[in-house]
């Protein structure tokens, strides 16, 4: 990881809601209802559930999720028209080691 990547991740994490999303996604089974279309969280959490839990506008959460994916904090998987997000644990670990 280089300084530029670390700065981008830091920018993403400098927002309370984005930090909450990272916290919620650490344990999706505890923070979100079971998915109707799939019966596991292997691919992450549907963006709709993240939006509902945040109580912010859909466009705001969509922008947050996009920027978090762009800087590498989240991985997105599509199932039809639905987008699922999960934490990118490898990048999170790399970022933490960079800060040490």
TrEMBL record:
<dbReference type="InterPro" id="IPR036390">
    <property type="entry name" value="WH_DNA-bd_sf"/>
</dbReference>
<dbReference type="InterPro" id="IPR011991">
    <property type="entry name" value="ArsR-like_HTH"/>
</dbReference>
<keyword id="KW-0804">Transcription</keyword>
<protein>
    <submittedName>
        <fullName>ArsR family transcriptional regulator</fullName>
    </submittedName>
</protein>
<keyword id="KW-0805">Transcription regulation</keyword>
<keyword id="KW-0238">DNA-binding</keyword>
<dbReference type="InterPro" id="IPR001845">
    <property type="entry name" value="HTH_ArsR_DNA-bd_dom"/>
</dbReference>
<dbReference type="GO" id="GO:0003700">
    <property type="term" value="F:DNA-binding transcription factor activity"/>
</dbReference>
<feature type="domain" description="HTH arsR-type">
    <location>
        <begin position="1"/>
        <end position="100"/>
    </location>
</feature>
<dbReference type="InterPro" id="IPR036388">
    <property type="entry name" value="WH-like_DNA-bd_sf"/>
</dbReference>
<dbReference type="InterPro" id="IPR051081">
    <property type="entry name" value="HTH_MetalResp_TranReg"/>
</dbReference>
<dbReference type="GO" id="GO:0003677">
    <property type="term" value="F:DNA binding"/>
</dbReference>
């Amino acid at each position: 990881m280089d300084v530029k990547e670390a700065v981008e991740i830091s920018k993403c994490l400098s927002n309370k809601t984005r930090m909450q999303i990272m916290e919620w996604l650490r344990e999706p089974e505890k923070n979100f209802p079971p998915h109707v279309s799939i019966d596991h969280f292997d691919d992450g959490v549907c963006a709709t559930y993240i939006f509902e839990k945040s109580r912010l506008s859909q466009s705001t959460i969509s922008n947050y999720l996009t920027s978090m994916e762009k800087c590498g904090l989240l991985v997105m998987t599509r199932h039809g028209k639905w987008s699922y997000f999960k934490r990118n644990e490898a990048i999170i670990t790399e970022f933490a080691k960079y800060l040490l």
